[in-house]
Recover the amino acids of this structure.
């Protein structure tokens, strides 16, 4: 968190910590979030990313565990597990003017979530497949 304080004034970082799911949802409903970043060294298929993409928020994440199932060209940028900090800095520098920071891309992120992770759709499709 000390390094975050050294960022330029146009960059805002919020470390949410351990809060309820409802608090996160309310935050996403009220705030404009341009990019969700997680640099975990181990992971499965994190709910935090599912929540972010459900609001159309592009993601930058490390390629560990099941991340490549949710972070694709349609939802964001996948870093190698052993990425260099300069690589992440370059992503931040170029993100603002990139196509990933557009309403069109964000709509695609949300569509990806709906087609692959929205429980109402996924459960219905699964039910149809096993009953056929």
């Amino acid at each position: 968190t000390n390094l975050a304080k050294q960022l330029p004034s146009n960059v805002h970082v919020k470390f949410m910590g351990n809060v309820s799911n409802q608090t996160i949802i309310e935050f996403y409903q009220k705030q404009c979030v341009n990019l969700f970043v997680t640099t975990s060294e181990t992971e499965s298929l994190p709910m935090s990313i599912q929540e972010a993409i459900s609001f159309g928020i592009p993601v930058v994440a490390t390629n560990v565990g099941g991340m490549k199932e949710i972070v694709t060209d349609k939802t964001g940028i996948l870093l190698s597990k052993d990425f260099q900090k300069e690589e992440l800095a370059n992503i931040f520098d170029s993100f603002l003017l990139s196509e990933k920071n557009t309403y069109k891309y964000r709509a695609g992120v949300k569509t990806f979530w709906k087609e692959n992770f929205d429980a109402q759709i996924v459960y219905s499709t699964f039910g149809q497949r096993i009953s056929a």
User: Anything to note?
Assistant: Helices lie at 21-30, 47-54, 67-70, 85-95, 103-116, 119-131. The first helix runs from residue 21 to 30. The longest strand covers residues 59-62. Residues 62 and 79 are 5 Å apart (CA to CA).
